[in-house]
Amino acid sequence: MIRHTDLGSSPFAQRRKLTDLIQQGLITLGGNRPGKIYGRLDCRAGKRMKPENRVFFRNETEALELRYRPCAVCLPGAYKAWKESDK
């Protein structure tokens, strides 16, 4: 897990480093740290997150190991499966 604020000291440096990591395939999912939710990088709900609450994952396995749950907006199938398994 990589915290958004750890990517650089300025918003520009953070965006540049994030772009590099995405292009290298080292980041494929984003998440909300306080809510313990992960989702796609292009999720409309995730784009409204505060940078200090945003984290990034290499893959879904990493997010699940850290006990994050799927986003209901961008991953409805995974969210439904998670919700059903929680009962």
TrEMBL record:
The keyword Nucleus does not apply. Transmembrane segments: none annotated. SUPFAM superfamilies: Ada DNA repair protein, N-terminal domain (N-Ada 10). The keyword Membrane does not apply. Keywords: Activator. GO terms for molecular function: DNA binding; methyltransferase activity; zinc ion binding. Residues 31-76 form the Ada DNA repair metal-binding domain. GO terms for biological process: DNA repair; regulation of DNA-templated transcription. It comes from the Bacteria. This is Metal-binding protein. It comes from Spirosoma aureum.
